[in-house]
Amino acid sequence: MTETTPQQTQTTTSADTPLRETALAAEHEALGASFTDFGGWRMPLKYTSELTEHRAVRETAGLFDLSHMGEIRVAGPDAATYLNTALVGDLAKVKVGKAKYSLICTPDGGILDDLIGYRITEDEYLIVPNAGNRETVYAAMAERAAGFDVDVWDESEAISLIAVQGPKAEAIVSSLVRLDETTIVENLPYYAADTVTIGGEEILLARTGYTGEDGFEMFLRDDKAGALWRALLSLGEEHGLTPCGLACRDSLRLEAGMPLYGNELSTERVSFEAGLPVVSFSKEEDFVGRAALQQAKAEGRGKTTGQRLVGLKGLGRRAGRGGYPVLAAEGERAGQQIGVVTSGQPSPTLGHPIAMAYVDVEFTEPGTRLDIDVRGKAQPFEVVQLPFYRRER
């Protein structure tokens, strides 16, 4: 979900504004992490190597600091109705203890951000937007709350978010909770959340993830984050738990075909182009962007007209990167640009280059041969269904 592809940078923004740091900054320093500017935050890029960390998540487990993500609380008698007006999904149908992936859109249907909504109680939700979009999303949500009996507040500054992702995630998290709560961890469904106790502290435990693996996210107070991070590293050692940075998180989510805001998602795109079936036209509420999205659907945008997001499998060795042109390889338009890469790199798990790209709808059929212009030389790719990688259940 996060908003830019991580690259190693200095510890200030281009305007020399000091970067924000999470409550775990000292822990990352102690582990020898290299850092990156990510959405205005100084975040660990990697600790050892991207490949080592990527493989750890696929084979055992990885530990991530995601405290740069936003946490917006919504509470009140009109919480469900309000969210059904502010977001495109039907949050009113989400049961207590469950979560839903959704979008917040502009009036013209463009994607302002993608986010996850957790229903904590009947009248309370936790909304998690992307780091770089947090303030924009909060401002839009606060504005859209007018006329509803609901309170909307941003509690991001006080909350840390730690994730464990990988095949051993359940065993690691189970070893931390009270003995009588291990069944909560073991029985927690995908896209659900519950409260558990770790170290005498009550935390919100979610089972979502952004890597294509099983995994958990733990929301807790900033002043308790360091102790939890160290406890996870200690108890997870026997399971191969490895601290992981944002570099491998990006390669993991790309293999899993998960969109990244600022790459696959933006205000210039609508959900139908991105292949996200998250818009609920069946709900009663006149949500922001509804009319524009109904028109886009009627026009076949992303289906019969315009462009659609596809997966591209490299048939050679060179990878296409974000921004590289996608060319028709055959037919009347051979050699012409018909799209652009949004994300791309070699896949550590699959052993060949992969990419996601927006291409004209006539070129979106799986098996279609396309080229990516890699610095002036056409490289062969093939359209494939997403995701590139799917874990064994």
TrEMBL record:
Task: Tell me the first and last residues of the signal peptide.
Answer: none
Its Enzyme Commission number? 2.1.2.10
Q: One Pfam family for this entry, by name?
A: GCV_T_C
Tell me where the transmembrane regions lie: none
Question: What positions does the domain Aminomethyltransferase C-terminal occupy?
Answer: 308-389
Reaction(s) the record says it catalyses: N(6)-[(R)-S(8)-aminomethyldihydrolipoyl]-L-lysyl-[protein] + (6S)-5,6,7,8-tetrahydrofolate = N(6)-[(R)-dihydrolipoyl]-L-lysyl-[protein] + (6R)-5,10-methylene-5,6,7,8-tetrahydrofolate + NH4(+)
Record keywords: Aminotransferase, Transferase
Annotated ranges, domain GCVT N-terminal: 26-278
Note the subunit structure. Answer: The glycine cleavage system is composed of four proteins: P, T, L and H.
Family statement drawn from the similarity comment of this UniProt entry: Belongs to the GcvT family.
Q: What does this protein do?
A: The glycine cleavage system catalyzes the degradation of glycine.
What name appears for this protein in its UniProt entry?
Aminomethyltransferase
Q: Upper lineage ranks?
A: Bacteria, Bacillati, Actinomycetota, Actinomycetes, Micrococcales
